[in-house]
Every structure is written in C-alpha cells, then in structure tokens.
Amino acid sequence: MAAVGDGSAFPRGRDLPPGLGCPPAQHSTGRRTRLLGISKRGNSYLRTQLIHGARAAMAHFARKQTAIRAWVRQLLARAHPSVVVAVGAKLASIAWAVLREEKGGATPALTRLRALISRGLEGTAALWPDIERTYGWVHRAAQILGNAAGETANPARQRFDGLIGAMTRHRAEAGSLVGAVEHFLKVTRSYRPGLFHCAAVAGLPRTNNDLEQMFGSQRYHERRATGRKTASPALVLRGEVRVIAATATRLHPPKARDLGRVSLRRWRDLRQRLEPRRLARTLRTRFRSDPARYLGTLEQQASQQALPA
Predict the structure, then answer these.
(1) Element (H, E) at 35
(2) Distance CA 270, CA 35 (A)
(3) What's the N-to-C CA distance of the chain in angstroms?
(4) Rounded CA gap, 180 and 174, in Å?
C-alpha cells in the first residue's frame, strides 16, 4: 500500500476505491443512470493486484461462512456483472481500515495481517530496489509493444531495440535479478522477428485467438494420437507442412480432383527444403545413440577425403 501512504489522504474507506479506479464511470442524465466500465484511474498496478486478490478471496468465500460471503451472494443473485471488481473495492476499503485503525483500533485478525505484511516488507526490503528497476524496464517494453500511439513498424522497432540495448548494457544494475533479465533478453531475441508484423501490415490484428485455439487443438490431438506427453520433435522440423495440412484438411477435406491441381514443382521444392532438416535430425539421433561409432565414421570419412587420388 505504498501508493496510498498511511491512508490519511482519504477521509473514509469508501473514498479509496474511486482513487484506484475500481468503481464504474457514469454517463447519467436527470432521469436515467447509466453505468459504464470501471474508470481505471489511479495506480493501475495496485488495482490489478486488488482484482487478483478478489478472485482468490471469492474462492475462499465459497468454503467459509463470513459476512462478506453473504454480501457477495446477494450481488451474484442480482446477476451483477462486476462482482470481482466490487469485491476488489471492498478489499481496498478494508485495507484503508488497516492503515488508519479507525473505530478504536483494528480487529485482532487485521492486526495480525498488518504485522504479517510488515514483517514481509522488512524481510524483502533489500529486494525491492532491484524489482523496481527491473519492473521499469519490462513495463517500458510492454508500452512499446502495445503501440498505443499507432506507430509504424520501423519507429516502434527502433525504440524497442534501444530499450533492449540499454537493458543489455545496464543489466548488472538489476542486482539479484540479473539472471531474470538475461533470460528476458534471450527470449526477446528469439521472438523479436515477429513482434512488429501487426504494425507493418495494415489491418493485421496483434493476436488471433481463433487461430491460436486451432493450433492448440492440433497439438492436443497429436499428443493423443501418438501417446506423447509433449509435442513431437518432428513438429519443429515439418511444422510448416504438418500443421498447415492438418488444419486445412479439418476445415476443407480434400478430394481427388484437388490433388490433381497440386504443383509438382512446388512440391519438389518443399521436399528439397525440408530434407536438410530431416538429415540433421537423423545425424543427431545417431550421435546420441552411439557417439563413439558416429565420431569414428566421421574420422574415417575425413581420412578418405584427405588421401591423394
């Protein structure tokens, strides 16, 4: 609760949730009250944590009879669309009461909670500077990738590359999170080529949930058919053929006349492009099964090539 201090800026507990953007915005007239989505004002990170805490608290309410549980059941009975947000606002008011200790002091449960939070903050005080610095980098990367200003691909890519370069140069400043920053940089280098297609191609959405679900179902059915707990290694080698063929045949089963329209030249080019991948996988398998024999074969081939004709 460092974002709100000791709570003295809010006269009452019900004044804290509006400062965090939890209550809905209004567009009302004299005769009609129209509630919109939450206003999303204030500290977005704190509001997010309150919402996550509300989801966890609702699971606890289902197991234990409490006063808040009866209140939540009344909201659910009215088919309230934002019960989780309402519970988050209630938790913010309770947090304000913990900070202010109004009404003659907090309850024993709240006193224990405050002591527990204080001990946790004291025990992790040395970690917060590293977390704050690293979170600033990651949050900045999320803002660039979000591209709220609608920049084209090149400016967004240049700003992102500049941030990644700064993180690489100053990663030692992350302290105990150096390993996490290095992992972030490694994963970012792998995904970087495809991060800005949505900005380079007009009308291309950032995500396609239907397409992701289709590919996910393909992976699920392949695991069921093969008995593997993980994805098949061949999916990496022949994914551009196997995945596309499997999803295409599910959408439109091919007929005999469709096979007659296939270009033989394109088929041969595809086989030629995939053959080096298959050969590389075969050689890796041979080396893993018998390294001595594999290296001996390579040595023999190298000696034959070195002999004079």
Answers:
(1) strand 35-38
(2) 57
(3) 81
(4) 9
Q: Are 88 and 47 in contact (CB under 8 A)?
A: yes
CA–CA separation, 256 and 271 (whole Å): 21
Tokens of residue 94, six digits: 């309770």
Inter-residue contact 61 to 69 (CB < 8 Å):
yes
Determine how β-strand 35-38 pairs with β-strand 24-26: antiparallel
Q: Which two tokens stand for residue 76?
A: 């659910």
Is the pTM higher than 0.70? The answer reads no
Give the separation between CA 222 and CA 214, rounded to whole angstroms.
12
Task: Tell me the pLDDT band of 166, cut-offs 50, 70 and 90.
Answer: very high
Tell me phi and psi for residue 224, to 5 degrees. Answer: -70, -40
CA angle 189, 194, 197 (to 5 degrees): 145
The pLDDT tens digits of the residues spanning 40-89 come to 777 778 778 888 888 887 777 767 777 777 777 777 777 566 677 777 77
Tell me how far apart the alpha carbons of residues 146 and 144 are, in angstroms, rounded to a whole number: 5
Task: State the pLDDT confidence band at 23, using cuts at 50, 70 and 90.
Answer: low
For 207, the token pair is 């995500």
Q: How far is CA 187 from CA 181, 182, 273, in A?
A: 10, 9, 26
Q: How far apart are CA 222 and CA 229, in angstroms?
A: 10
User: Which amino acid, 270?
Assistant: L
The phi and psi torsions of 80 (rounded to 5 degrees) equal -65, 125
Contact 179, 132 (CB under 8 A): no
Here the tokens at position 67 are 């006063």
197 near 204, Cβ under 8 Å? yes
- Under 8 Å CB-to-CB from 229, ≥6 apart: which residues? 223
Q: What is the per-residue burial (b if ≥16 Cβ within 10 Å, else e) of 102-113?
A: eeeebeeeeeee
